[in-house]
Amino acid sequence: AQSVTQPDIHITVSEGASLELRCNYSYGATPYLFWYVQSPGQGLQLLLKYFSGDTLVQGIKGFEAEFKRSQSSFNLRKPSVHWSDAAEYFCAVGLNSGYSTLTFGKGTMLLVSP
Amino acid sequence: GAVVSQHPSWVICKSGTSVKIECRSLDFQATTMFWYRQFPKQSLMLMATSNEGSKATYEQGVEKDKFLINHASLTLSTLTVTSAHPEDSSFYICSGTGQGPETQYFGPGTRLLVL
Question: Mind listing the pLDDT tens digit for each residue in A2-44?
């Protein structure tokens, strides 16, 4: 069964600084990969996804993620963090065969300091 | 596009009563819908998967007689928590796929508090 590891429970970044959130997965083949963001008391919003092709994926709100097969990683990055980016971020993995259930990481809480 | 709504956003009920939560896909037809449960400061736990017109598939450990799921149309799925108890208090989130089966679009969640 696939699994997802987000090693950082929470991260604090200064506003304007760059951000990288880590995600590692365990799966026998190349999975579908997703990053979602959740604001307090809200549902999840899709930031970006990777299915195949270019390993650098652009998403909404200035986020990007890079799929590295050799490292089984799909880290999320943003060059300059805004205070409104403070939220919980979830990495998720899906099977690459039709519709699939998602396996979520435990999430990383991003705190933005002034 | 790909907007999912949930109703209600908040519900407080007495122990022993039943609560129904609606999940609607507003601008797409959700062939498959998913129901998740999320405890404070934890990740999402999949409860069940439902395809329109079919019985839901429940994850291991989820009581199907307690959490009734109906997916009667391509835009509506309902989750009914029957005979709710305080331990059922949680944040329930639904999602739907349809614009490409691989991507799930999530609703805003429903906070259930059972007294």
Answer: 789 999 999 999 999 999 999 999 987 778 899 999 998 888 9
Over the stretch A74-96, which tens digit does the pLDDT of each residue have? 999 999 999 999 999 999 998 75
Residues sharing a CB contact under 8 Å with residue A26, sequence separation 6 or more, in sequence order: A2, A3, A4, A5, A72
Instruction: Name B61's Cβ contacts closer than 8 Å, sequence gap at least 6.
Output: none
Of A45, A90, A98, the CB nearest to B43: A90
- Chain A residues in contact with B102 (beta carbon < 8 A): 32, 49, 51, 94, 96, 98-100
Determine the distance in angstroms separating the CA of B71 from the nearest CA of chain A, rounded to an integer: 16
Q: Do A43 and B6 touch (CB under 8 A)?
A: yes
Contact assessment for residue A90 and residue A73, using Cβ atoms and an 8 Å cutoff: no
Report the amino acid identity of residue A72. S
The three-class DSSP label of residue B29 is coil
User: Which token pair is A43?
Assistant: 């549902």
Nearest CB to A101: which of B43, B49, B106? Answer: B49
Say how far apart CA A47 and CA A76 lie, in whole Å.
10
Amino acid letter, B38: Q
Chain A residues in contact with B49 by the CB 8 A cut-off are 101
Suggest the residue from B34, B42, B103, B105 to mutate for an interface test with chain A (most A CBs closer than 10 A). Answer: B103
Q: Distances in Å between the alpha carbon of B84 and those of A80, A104, B115?
A: 45, 26, 9
